[in-house]
Amino acid sequence: AVDSGWKGAAMLDVFNSDVGDEDCARLAVYLPQFPHLHTINFAGNNITGDGVFALSCALRSASSLTALDLSRNTFGASGAAYLAAQLRKSEALRALRVAGCGLPQASVAAICQGLPPNLEELDLSSNILGDYAAGALAEALPPAGFDCPATENPK
User: What pTM, to 2 d.p., does this model score?
Assistant: First the structure.
């Protein structure tokens, strides 16, 4: 059980703390007990697809979560798939950072296809975007709200 004094915590930051999959699974069990938790920073750890699976299960009940940072973890295609499946259901999420995870473009595309509609910040840097993922990102972005008339390319 979590000490009642900690239940008001708004941020969990374990950046670069050698957190692995087992640690994620243990922490994920307790995340639903923090109703005011709005930021989770797991960047720079040793989290693979198994750890992301545990966290994504916990995200189902993290209705106040607005920022999630999983940057610099090697969670691969399976972790990206687990994350993508939960993102669309994370209506409060405003910032997602998955920079430097070495994700191939199919995994980046899966994440883009799962982005929640209210997302304001997305960091995909140092992953492989490519045409396929760029197309998925373009589809996920809200309409630009302006018209750009087609013009001939000046030579």
Answer: 0.88
Cβ neighbourhood burial of 155 (10 Å; 0-12, 13-18, 19+): exposed
Series of mean pLDDT values for 10-residue runs along the chain (155 residues): 68 95 92 89 97 89 90 97 92 95 96 93 95 93 65 59
How many whole angstroms separate alpha carbon 124 and alpha carbon 152?
32
Strand order in the sheet with 67-69: 11-13, 39-41, 67-69, 95-97, 121-123
Tell me the one-letter amino acid at 135.
Answer: G
Reduced to 3 states (helix: H, G, I; strand: E, B; else coil), residue 11 is strand
* 8 Å CB contact between 64 and 40: no
Q: Please provide the DSSP assignment of 77-123 as one string.
A: HHHHHHHHHHHTT-TT--EEE-TTS---HHHHHHHHHT--TT--EEE
